[in-house]
Design a protein that fits this description.
homodimer, 348 residues, alpha/beta, 4-stranded parallel beta sheet, DNA-binding
Chain lengths: 348, 348
DNA sequence: ATCGATGCATCCAACGTTGTAAACAGCGAG
DNA sequence: CTCGCTGTTTACAACGTTGGATGCATCGAT
């Protein structure tokens, strides 16, 4: 219980600066905020006091006063899935342009955690939410009554429009293009890795649909033994699925994987068994993560415009927050994607 | 300027709940915070009111009142470097156990941004900071006068002890082990990829030192043409460096790369030129990122105990924050690491 | 009846900031 | 000398929350 004469306070406040500079607290606030009408001499004095005390505005207090925090949250399944890590990078960059800080929530793709996020665990702490759900249902979303602006990323949830902005890509047509690319190269037994049994997994469903459409379009019969189901979209799942495909005797001559990590896992299995890629089996991925550009063979894939997605999503949030048009109808934005053919389908 | 009779407010407050439940605002607060002495009947009434209004505590106000935010920041160079993405995941998990949310700052490894972070851009908004700097100098760190508890991750900065907790691994001995592993396999012309010319790059410096020690220990002469410099630690840098090494005629029979992405880039170059790995050239990485486990050949590497690092770092912050021992001496923690030999050195 | 515990609810102040409005100084015009 | 203007500074009240002190019942023991 010792009494300290000086610096009993841990952090200096406006009040301390004001006392030292011999002005009112509001004047200091004005200086800090660059208010125009402050006499040059006063300003200098205040600035000196600020420097001397090493004053920093308390952002929490400012946020409370202003009713916003300058923080937005990005909720993704898992940061060490390269696609999401790269997306997060893009979001952080885009948010920076609006002066926002990004707080990241990992949901592990678990419905329970996703419901928490959407219900607003961070209510009042964040100004807006970018959310890329995996397991969330339309009902969960409908039950939401948090008022924080929300922009959904990735697949659409449910059939009906949700009352939220949404940024995604056309999965069906992208998957169709990828599969068609394989068919155009003369492949006839095109397998798919990445179907999901769970009710969740809109992504898998849509890409499967695109795959089927492409088969139909190429006049190829669908062979259910060529469609491999997975638990998750990790490399290990891809490796397992590929092994199962090879062992099943389905003898594919090409594989369309629902994402790049699955494809890289599959590639591992193929190469370690001495299967030549693409000569014996051509391989196609989805996402265009950096690993795929440096694998051997490099991975043909669909490249979604990640930067565009991030920028659009953040801009949509910004619009909602500016509240110029408080009740604008929810937007449905379809970002572009591009087919990138590399060695895993074309050879060298 | 229309007047709304009901719900003119955007967000209900304690006050609104209190009015609806017919109690005082503090009672509602007590219910929300699980205060023991609230009559069951009152509690139920309040809970109903909360549900009816869909009340959520304003975390900003709570933070202001309590003087802490429940948020810690993790500052890393770049999330789409797999090592940092995986580290971030571990940190988020560890922070979760303390009830903290993690806010991520990307510095791009730029000194200017790193100085901002260390100077406390987020002062008052975060309770603590975990920082993995790349370019920061000892002087920058010494100039810091922000009071937010700081734990440094990665390499130590400068020769003298800083007044901050630090969690790292023993880079020199890890690099030594890796290089020694190559020497033990009979390799004689062991190259290194990842040296840095810039003053920054403590990591590179330490790993280079370990590499040299190992050469000396194995009775191998140091050949400067075998040491390749890079701009950054990305796959592309590794690929370029490997190409340069091959073209230079230095003819290595093994390469110790200062991290896994460099190694994967190098692997790409080797395989695309028909060099057999490990038969012609053995390859060794550092970090044990997931890609390396699924490349072909899979990558021998040093696996730092990332989970341990994250947990320790968060726990150190927690100690500082609990302030039981306000001025505990700065801790220097050396996390463990493990050599994992895979196909890129052992073959199949 | 009186008293002290005990359980429960309320009142007040404070956290550090900023928007609003008002006060004040200086100065040129009437 | 007063008025009004411009520029500069200030006082005050909020933002929504919680810790602490205080008040008010109720109840069992005297």
């Amino acid at each position: 219980m010792e009494t300290q004469l000086y610096s009993a306070r841990v952090q200096p406040r406006l009040k301390d600066v004001a006392e030292l500079a011999g002005v009112s607290i509001k004047t200091v606030s004005n200086v800090v905020n660059g208010y125009q009408f402050v006499k040059q001499e006063t300003r200098t004095r205040v600035e000196q006091a600020i420097a001397e005390l090493n004053y920093r505005p308390n952002l929490t207090a400012r946020n409370l006063r202003q009713g916003r925090s300058g923080v937005i949250a990005l909720a993704v399944p898992d940061l060490d899935i390269p696609y999401f890590a790269e997306l997060a990078t893009n979001v952080i960059t885009a948010a920076d342009r609006h002066g926002w800080t990004v707080l990241i929530d990992q949901t592990q793709g678990e419905r329970a955690k996703e419901r928490l996020v959407v219900a607003g665990i961070r209510a009042h702490l964040i100004d807006g939410l970018l959310f890329s759900p995996l397991a969330l249902t339309a009902a969960d979303l409908a039950a939401r009554d948090d008022r924080t602006p929300l922009v959904l990323l990735g697949e659409r949830i449910g059939r009906e429009r949700t009352p939220y902005d949404h940024v995604g890509i056309d999965n069906v047509s992208a998957a169709l293009q990828g599969t068609a690319h394989l068919a155009a190269l003369g492949r006839r037994r095109i397998a798919a890795i990445g179907a999901r049994r769970a009710a969740s997994g809109a992504t898998a469903r849509l890409r499967l649909r695109g795959y089927r459409k492409a088969l139909a379009g190429a006049g190829l019969a669908e062979d259910p033994t060529l469609v491999s189901h997975v638990e998750a979209f990790h490399r290990a799942d891809g490796a397992r699925a590929m092994a199962a495909l090879l062992d099943s005797g389905a003898s594919p001559d090409a594989v369309f994987c629902f994402n790049d990590t699955l494809a890289l896992g599959a590639l591992r299995t193929l190469l370690s068994r001495g299967v030549r890629v693409p000569d014996d089996i051509a391989l196609f991925g989805f996402d265009d993560i950096e690993d795929g550009r440096f694998s051997t063979p490099s991975l043909s894939t669909i490249a979604p415009d990640r930067q565009g997605i991030a920028q659009t999503a953040v801009d949509l949030l910004a619009e909602r927050l500016s509240a110029a048009v408080p009740e604008r109808a929810p937007q449905e934005v379809c970002a572009s994607h591009e087919l990138i053919a590399r060695e895993s389908t074309l050879g060298r």
